[in-house]
Amino acid sequence: MAYNLLKGKRGIVFGALNDMSIAWKVAERVVEEGAVITLSNTPLAVRMGTTNELAEKLNAKLIPADATNVADLEEVFKQSMEALGGKVDFVLHSIGMSPNVRKKRTYDDLDYDLLNTTLDISAVSFHKMLQVAKKLDAINEWGSVVALTYMAAQRTMFGYNDMADAKAMLESIARSFGYIYGREHNVRVNTISQSPTITTAGSGVKGFDSLVDFSERMSPLGNATAAECADYCVTMFSDLTRKVTMQNLFHDGGFSSMGMSFRAMEQYNKSFEEFKDEQGNIIYG
Ligand SMILES: NC(=O)c1ccc[n+]([C@@H]2O[C@H](COP(=O)([O-])OP(=O)(O)OC[C@H]3O[C@@H](n4cnc5c(N)ncnc54)[C@H](O)[C@@H]3O)[C@@H](O)[C@H]2O)c1
Question: Residue 132 belongs to what H/E stretch?
Fold first, then answer.
């Protein structure tokens, strides 16, 4: 259902690779709510992925850019203002990648050049985006910038590796830049901490399916889907959240406040079945 919450607004959506991508769902949803947008992804992703189809469907200009490259980002903001007919009102940073995870390097055997790449793509790119936008004065007063993050920034999650450090940095950038951008231009900057979601990036994490199942069992409302994340982004881009800034907003069905749930406990207990004696006592061996 559409509420026209973004009528007359212009936006840029970074990171839609295929129809599983969270950014893909956000792009569809913001247009449904009346916004006009441009899309951006790396030249390689544009060639290999299906972002072109989305651009056609939404009548959105697709601007290839490596988000670690400042000159590329300047082009995205300049071309977006030109294509959309003015400054933008919202930006989504939905970008993440760890070459250490891809190459199966464990956290105690990181390649430091690869770590720099993880941090540059997944966190520093957010700073670059904000700095470019501010220098070009590309975002309207009361505009809204959102980056997607994950709870591994606060709590250690098996397999999340150096992406946890990248997310911690990303969330810090939202606070540090949010202060300056808010003070000077009334632009708000937040991160949304999303449930594990089955996408190309998500599936790279070791044991991802178990993580999805575990957080589903732990969350009273269940995992938040990509489509639900898109709904939340719409509210964050709308005028209904004008005083929300510098926040890390959990969108996870309650997972981040849970310690143990009945459903997770039940599953945990099942793993002891084969180690029980006739009286039902667990034999720890
Ligand atoms: N999937 C999950 O479980 C989950 C949970 C919480 C947060 N997130 C975050 O959501 C965001 C989107 O991820 P997704 O799950 O939709 O996966 P995805 O793989 O669909 O999206 C990741 C995007 O990053 C882009 N990208 C990679 N390197 C880039 C670069 N140098 N410049 C520009 N773009 C680049 C990719 O092309 C891709 O479009 C990421 O920040 C991810 O960490 C995902």
Answer: helix 125-135
